[in-house]
Amino acid sequence: MAHLACSYRNTSDRMVILRCIGPEQFFLERVVFPFELLSFQCPPSSVVKIWTHGLGGPELVETVNAGDLLNEAASQPARSAQPAQLEALPSSRGYFPGLLDGELPWATAS
């Protein structure tokens, strides 16, 4: 069974617990810190529940279908793998100073 590539960002100022429950005894539980992005894989029909801890104990914050948490890259059609096209930038002297002169292009401690 193919898994979905999902992600969840905790936009709250409190830690939350992400529980993903799926078919065939699939279970994933992770602590997600404030403003953290968690990426995970799960079966397509999984349900994600976000929990926090309140004064009265655990509180369910939200319930979402895993399909609603798909990564943007995973939801776009895959492009054919081609090497990146690189282009040399023109230099005023035709070379990068320091690299050919035996000098280092960054500061060094003496």
Describe what you observe in this structure.
The chain has a domain at 4-74: Immunoglobulin-like. The protein has 1 helix and 6 strands, in the order ββββββα. It has one helix at residues 72-75, and strands spanning 4-9, 16-21, 27-32, 37-42, 47-54, 57-65. Strands 3-2-5-6 form a 4-stranded antiparallel β-sheet, with no helix packed on it. A two-stranded antiparallel ribbon has the order 1-4. The longest helix has 4 residues, at 72-75. It starts with a strand and ends in a 35-residue tail after the last helix. The relative contact order is 0.20.
Structural class, by secondary structure, is mainly beta
Sheet with most strands: 4 strands, antiparallel
Name the CATH class of the domain at 4-74: Mainly Beta
Order of helices and strands: EEEEEEH
Q: What characteristics describe this protein?
A:
110 residues; mainly beta; Immunoglobulin-like; two-stranded antiparallel ribbon; flat
Quick gist of this model?
The protein is mainly beta. It has a domain at 4-74: Immunoglobulin-like. Helices cover 4% and strands 37% of the residues.
Layout of strands and helices, then pairs:
Blueprint: E1 4-9, E2 16-21, E3 27-32, E4 37-42, E5 47-54, E6 57-65, H1 72-75
Antiparallel strand pairs: 1-4, 2-3, 2-5, 5-6
